[in-house]
Amino acid sequence: MDEPAVDRAGALDRLGSERFDLLVVGGGIVGAGIAEAASAHGLKVALVDKGDFAGATSSASSKLIHGGLRYLRLGDVGLVREAHHERRVLMRVVAPHLVRRLPFLLPLYADGPYRPWFVQSGVVVYSTLARAKLNGLVDVERAQRMVPELQTDRLRSCALYADAWTNDTRLTLANLRAAEDRGAVVVNYAEVVGVRPLEVLADGRTLAVDARRVVNASGPWIDRVRRLEDPKARASVRLSKGVHVVVDGGEAWHAAVTIPHDKVRVSFAVPWEGALLLGTTDTEYDGAPENVAVSEDDLRQVLEEAAVALGPLGPPRVTFAGLRVLPTGAGGTASARRETVYTTGPSGMVSVAGGKLTTYRRIALDALDQLGVRHLSRRPRPLPGATGLDRIPWPVPLDPVTRAHLLHLYGSLAPEVLAPAAEDPSLLEPLVAGRPDVRAQAQYARAREWALSDEDVFRRRTTAWLAASGLRV
């Protein structure tokens, strides 16, 4: 492998001995995006996460890069416009290998919450904001050709629009790789245990960290970190649990399905990584973030809501739960605004709460603006692996499925992943049965992508976890 292996000991030594312009607390998509943007603007950056990178919400999202059709109903036109801009940028420049366009069908049943004329007008507005030609209503026959399992009883028509999907964990890792390539120190399994003074606990030792500024991007743990700075800090957010279920299917689908349940909530059925992703729920959660789990009621709700629009599906293979961070306020979580809130603590720590996977880049730049970083460039930058996708020098022969899979996950970095297989063909063997991942990916995950455990490899660097049956993560 041309790139040197990740030097964890060296990274920890640097963390405890060098002076940084910025310490980012939290290695989810928002923290990773902040580290990428800050390093691109010349700041000396360190990032730590008490668990694995993307170990919480950023590996448990709906995997969608979308404008948010239902946000039009809530009046968030500005959010929809911003999200569509970011979707285009991610697809075209930042990570075209990871962010893929996908049509969506919204079935309109006779007993559904929306009338066709209302949805058609909304889709036209949505598609105008998206600068997309794909919009309007399609008949039942065409809809069923796109999604064979679509229930057609009492189906009047379907709205058709376009959004995109991604692998949320790989997108997070790509941002971290970009930051590290520019000299940033990134360390997982390193917990901030003090803010005044700034201290990090990792591998059994406490490091004093010297950083001029701190950004708290710890997601559902945001208030816990805020109270390290100010023990009297009041709750600044509320949490909403989102549960997803992965089942077999989707191979013959040419679109995803958006299923309306009332005038606010929708759920999705998305062909994703060779399987079918169902969800999500949206229920208030007041427990410890690390204890979030999928209940039998959650599982039942997801499957029952999918059955509104889909025929019989296979048994659940994998279930997972994540937490959304929402502004405090009255009313149900489903109708809460998906806005980002920035607060500054008594010692100057900036906390970033909320937002969407789709708009992570914008959130990162706004966080740097809060920190007073001047001359911010909003021009999109390709992430590692995003360029040269049409001229990849494959070091070993691969079958088409494996090649397409590695191209999607790594882009033009795929030869770097496969380089050791030229000397050791056993690294081309399947990592697990039933998935296109190969053993070279596991070796690469540990050598280059900060993986320390089998779970890090299987759950967050590859798609091997999707081969499990009955797994809850």
Describe this structure in words.
It is a single chain. The chain contains 14 helices and 20 strands. By secondary structure, it is an alpha/beta fold. Strands 3, 4, 5, 6, 12, 13, 14, 15, 16, 17 and 20 form an eleven-stranded mixed β-sheet that branches. A six-stranded mixed β-sheet has the order 7-2-1-11-19-18, with helices on both faces. The protein has a three-stranded antiparallel β-sheet with strand order 8-9-10. A hairpin with a 2-residue loop joins strand 8 (190-195) and strand 9. The model has no long low-confidence stretch (mean pLDDT 92).
Defining traits:
473 residues, alpha/beta, eleven-stranded mixed beta sheet, six-stranded mixed beta sheet, 31% helix, 25% strand
Report low-confidence residues grouped into runs of 5 or more.
none
Mean pLDDT: 92
Query: Over the alpha carbons, how many angstroms does the gyration radius reach?
Result: 22 Å
Helix content: 25-40%
Query: What is the number of strand segments?
Result: 20
Number of helices: 14
Overall SS class: alpha/beta
Strand content: 15-25%
**Major sheet characteristics:** 11 strands, mixed
Q: Could you give the distance between the termini?
A: 32 Å
- The dominant shape is globular
